[in-house]
Amino acid sequence: MKQAFKYAYLAFIYLFLYIPILVLVIYSFNDSRFSTNWQGFTFSWYAQLFEDGPLMEAFANSLIIAFSSSTIATILGTLSAFAFYRYRFIGRKVTYSFIYVVMMSPDIVMGISLLMFFITVGLSTGAATLLLAHITFCLPFVVVTVYARISGFDRNILDAAKDLGATERRMFRHVVLPMLMPAVIAGWLLSFTLSLDDVVVSFFTTGPSFEVLPLKIYSMVRLGIKPEINALSTVMFLMSLVTVTVSHLLIAKENR
Amino acid sequence: MEKDPIVRLRRVTKRFDDVVAVDSLDLDIYQGEFLTLLGPSGCGKTTVLRLIAGFESPDKGDIVMNGTSLIGTAPNKRNVNTVFQSYALFPHMSIFDNIAFGLKMKRFEKSVITEKVTEALSIVKLGGLEMRKPHQLSGGQQQRVAMARAIVNKPQVLLLDEPLSALDYRLRQEMELELKRIHRKLGITFVFVTHDQEEAISMSDRIAVMNEGRIEQIGTPSQIYEEPQNMFVAKFVGEINVFEGRIVEIHNGSAVVDIHGRHFKVQNRKDFANGRAVKVLLRPEDIMVTKDEELQGTAPALAGKIEEVIYKGKTVDLIISLDAGETVFVTQFFNEDQEDVVYRHGHRIHINWPYGWEVVL
Lengths: 256, 361
Description:
The structure holds two protein chains of two kinds.
Chain A: H1 2-27, H2 44-51, H3 53-86, H4 92-104, H5 107-121, H6 127-150, H7 155-163, H8 168-196, H9 200-205, H10 213-221, H11 227-255
Helix pairs in contact in A: 1-11, 2-11, 3-6, 3-8, 3-10, 4-6, 6-8, 7-8, 8-11
Chain B: E1 5-16, E2 19-30, E3 34-38, H1 45-53, E4 60-65, E5 68-69, E6 80-83, H2 95-105, H3 110-123, H4 139-151, E7 157-161, H5 169-186, E8 189-194, H6 197-203, E9 206-211, E10 214-219, H7 221-226, H8 231-236, E11 241-250, E12 254-259, E13 262-267, E14 277-282, E15 288-291, E16 302-311, E17 315-322, E18 327-333, E19 348-352, E20 359-360
Parallel strand pairs in B: 3-8, 3-9, 6-7, 7-8
Antiparallel strand pairs in B: 1-2, 1-4, 4-5, 9-10, 11-12, 11-14, 12-13, 14-20, 15-19, 16-17, 16-19, 17-18
Helix pairs in contact in B: 2-3, 2-4, 3-4
């Protein structure tokens, strides 16, 4: 009886979390302009979606930005986390704390301040500024993720590598990086998702010439929710599902 | 020991913030010896090791190896290797790759690496485990891998930082013998750090007893044990009984010390002057116990009674409270000729010791 209650409770929580997504997925197959009642099954919204040139372009832009910003942020973030761990320098603790400040500051503040910065230095908003902005807000997440793992290391392992004749560079390449890999991958995936669905910062830091998916959806939704959007959201949901699964498998493999 | 030292530390000082970890320390390490740095935690022994390895650099002084100063030489350029207390094996590498790491860094050929790794594994008796990961091995096996990973590089000096402290008692004794065997086999210099005086005594050629960043005494295990030069060494290495006394007579090479009104003849190696307050130190096994009813003659002795009898199998330990108030710890070996010697709680006894077995400080 008690056991049954536990399962019911668990089921309720998951229903609460996933029913909205499930409804969305179902309606993406609904053969009706107005997505309130079921009119029969169709793939036509998916077909329309892939024929919608501007939407697909925005989608491609989003993927490019997400991929490059998360990759650059991961490289920079991993190196900074290593530096925070390995070297003692003046202002180390303060600079590390500021990483959290960037992470915690509201998107709107970040968006506006980046816009002001770009205007001040004379950069016109577009793909480049958007990329810079995305690297900026992804970076702290990578640093924190990687630092969490590296700070659990036995410091003697680095000494051992040096002791056995490794230079700083080879120590990083052969010992530190392989040991950090799960965190590096996790940081990349986190950055990728953050970048892919960012609306607020992107709103301020991209120009009319370069449109990304979340902003495109946002402007489309203002005219009412089209079933096309449901289809698109389903595709994105599927993508994140795959990403999460892959990352879990990778981390599980690494820990084995 | 008449050889030139392979490593010399000259007035080496190392501070961490306000704490002086190593204080103007001089130390010569000779080719092929097994030298142990022994001391309580925080005495600077690990820092000395890390200074030799190059993980720390001295604030003052010089470290010389083979006649050349090591100051400014990075750890990866020194011909020494370290076995870490935590083993510090690379968790993501197989045992083979762990041991091969140093050789790969020196860019040896693959076939040479395989040959040397196999040899190192056989020295530490771990053949067949090459493809395992460190976490699949027991603590004792990991310890052996850490040894193999260091010795495969054929360092001139092997530094061992409390390598046995994480092992249980039986395994530790086994590894002590293994270390001795490996030391003899390889003929390289071992510098071993420990806080365990039994470990130090049973393995070392020489022991340097350290306290507060300085060496209190350096010598062979028997010199350290039998002729401690100060109270710190005496108390840190083994059990010891301390009697407060005063010199009342001086003879040629000997003296008479008054302890609780009884006069004992002692050796006067340090040329103490008459009237000086001294401490007479005696190891538990150097004290003789005589039952009152068996007391013969007038040899000076201290009276007391047995408080506790602790049977140890090979020996029996007695805790004796003297009438003068002190508590004395005595170890008696069983004497095959005197099987009837049985000690019981409350027995009245006298204690004394053979002339010359004492240490006077």
